[in-house]
Amino acid sequence: MQTLNDRMRSMDMSGGLYEIFQKALVMEANGESIIHMEIGKPDFDSPREAKDALIKALNDGFVHYTAMAGTAELRSAIAVKEKRDNGIEADPECEIMVTAGACEALMAFMLTVLNPGDEILIPCPYFSAYTDMAHIAGVNIVEVPLKLENGFELKAADIEERVTDRTKALLVNTPHNPTGAVVGREELEKIAKLAQERDLIVVSDETYDQFLFTGKHVSISTLPGMKERTVIVNSTSKTFSMTGWRLGYAIAPKEMILYMNKVHQNMSTCATSFVQVGVTEAFLNGRPFTERMVEEFRVRRDMVVKGLQAIDGIRLVEPKGAFYIFPSIAGLGMSSTEFCSRALDETGVAMVPGNAFGKCGEGFIRLAYACSRQEIETAMERLAGFVSTLGK
Question: What are the DSSP E strand ranges found in the chain?
Fold first, then answer.
């Protein structure tokens, strides 16, 4: 008896990131010194005011269903934040949907907008959940390579080469996971022009919109002719260090949100009620918290860049945003998987092999600098010592 459908039987279950994470946890439990640079979660507590608001809501009995699209107060707060920070005009009544994390918003987009067999263009390397969700929805993925020599910036010319008659959507992620790259306004304008010429729907993952070290975030949805063909996905996981709160949202044209919300209803009904109260408070008063956190990540970014630049055989570009760096280890004579596995065994530094983020990631590794300055300093020392022994 076959218990799985065809899509599940053909899904890649090899992982990469979580295999490294689980191995690191076992080593740590056995008393080994592990520096976690594999998991992309800020090492900060959530804002105090948000936690207090959540606790009060829980104690006040706010424990039942909310409106499926989210409370009116939270959708209004999201609209204010997006207008203030990104210049995005969104009607909280009919263009914003609150979800149980950004991944649910992306999944709702896949199931609402794309048909089985449609193609979606995804920059590679990529956050692995993108391809898993597309696979679950029966959507075909076409990878658009991001190149080290271009600073990993997504280029309109590379997109255009891969558009076919079956292409329906394009995914844009800026600032980018796993490279930390940012797509500049000039290139976004070219991508927007191409999307309109080829009638593409754009899903814009803006999870790291607050994590820029230079300049200001530009959402492709704000460019002429793009609001009506763009779905924005965002999250509070990184912005307010709330990875466990599971609160995300989507902004899209009214007719899309109507049906995306229907999918959302049947996956999770609504985001957790008292969490929505805490997140509302974070949007209203948590901006100083985020600014302090991003400034700390800037310091850590500089430490990691300096440390890696001093190691022979490693090539990199300085990340402009997020809290990841994606250096090349191609010159060291081993695969990404072998490098990360040996580095963990021999140094206790947990990193992710680049091939966990798609075929284009082979020859690279991802480090998340979401750990303390002391841990970063120690990690760079350990890696330098490890690399110096290779080939001897």
Answer: 35-36, 96-99, 119-124, 140-145, 167-173, 201-205, 230-235, 248-251, 324-325, 349-350, 352-353, 365-368
Per-residue tokens: 22 = 């689980």
User: What is the overall mean pLDDT for the chain?
Assistant: 96
Residue 375: which CATH number? 3.90.1150.10
Q: Are residues 133 and 97 in the same domain?
A: yes
Q: Is 322 helix (H, G, I), strand (E, B) or coil?
A: coil
Q: Are 97 and 120 contained in the same domain?
A: yes
Q: Examine residue 108 and state whether it is found in any structural domain, yes or no.
A: yes
**SS3 call for 123:** strand
Domain extent, residue 223, equals 64-286
- How far is it, in rounded angstroms, from Cα 244 to Cα 276? 13
Q: Is residue 57 part of a domain?
A: no
176 & 109 share domain: yes
Beta-sheet pairing, 324-325 with 365-368: antiparallel
Question: For residue 267, what are the contacts with CB-CB under 8 A and spacing of at least 6?
Answer: 100, 104, 107, 108
Cβ–Cβ contacts within 10 Å for residue 383, how many? 24
Strand, coil or helix: 173 = strand
pTM > 0.85: yes or no: yes
Q: What is the spatial distance between Cα 202 and Cα 209, in angstroms, rounded to a whole number?
A: 16
Residue 210 lies in a domain: yes
Pair (103, 187) in one structural domain: yes
Please name the amino acid found at residue 227.
K
Count of domains for the chain:
2
Q: Tens of pLDDT along 296-332? A: 999 999 999 999 999 999 999 999 999 999 999 999 9
User: What pLDDT score does 392 carry?
Assistant: 58
Q: Is the pLDDT score of 82 beyond 70?
A: yes
Per-residue confidence (pLDDT) for residue 14, from 0 to 100: 64
Where does 214-286 have alpha helices with state H? 254-268, 273-285
* pLDDT one-digit tens code per residue, 168-225: 999 999 999 999 999 999 999 999 999 999 999 999 999 999 999 989 999 999 999 9
> Quick one: 240 and 250 in the same domain?
yes
Do 90 and 211 have their domain in common?
yes
- pLDDT tens, position by position, 257-284: 999 999 999 999 999 999 999 999 999 9
Are 112 and 94 members of one domain? yes
Give the CA distances from residue 366 to residues 176, 179, 285, 356, 387, in Å, rounded to whole numbers and listed in that order: 12, 8, 33, 9, 16
Tokens of residue 275, six digits: 């969490």
